[in-house]
Design brief:
Elements: E1 19-26, E2 32-34, E3 36-38, E4 44-48, H1 52-59, E5 65-69, H2 70-77, E6 85-87, H3 108-114
Length: 116
């Protein structure tokens, strides 16, 4: 009997992400509620991170989280109309680097309004 090697796997094949660190918020009844985000097109998406460090890097160290498997995250978000799950999203691009000796520029509108 032939066995498939990892090299034989289809790169486009979806694989379960495993246990994820899922951001939650405190609900009005005192329980945890999933925190949904929006992707670059404005579509609501459930999010999960593969490590607490990745979650903290994107959402900050104060973000509360729970551990859920990807199928459980999908099952909890689907009745709420959220069918997309994003793993390890990058929500903001890194800050642009300034050249050596270049100072940060202020807002032109604000500087103009203050100069009156």
């Amino acid at each position: 009997m032939d066995t498939l090697a990892i090299e034989d796997a289809d790169p486009e094949e979806r694989r379960p992400a495993g246990p994820l660190y899922v951001p939650v918020r405190l609900g009005s009844a005192g329980g945890h509620q999933l925190r949904f985000l929006r992707d670059e097109f404005g579509t609501r998406t459930a999010v999960g991170f593969t490590s607490p460090d990745r979650l903290n890097a994107v959402l900050g160290g104060d973000q509360t989280w729970i551990r859920l498997a990807e199928p459980a995250l999908r099952a909890l978000s689907a009745p709420l109309g959220v069918t997309r799950v994003t793993v390890d999203p990058l929500l903001a691009p890194p800050a642009p680097r300034r050249r050596h000796g270049q100072s940060a520029s202020g807002c032109a509108r604000r500087d103009h309004a203050l100069s009156r």
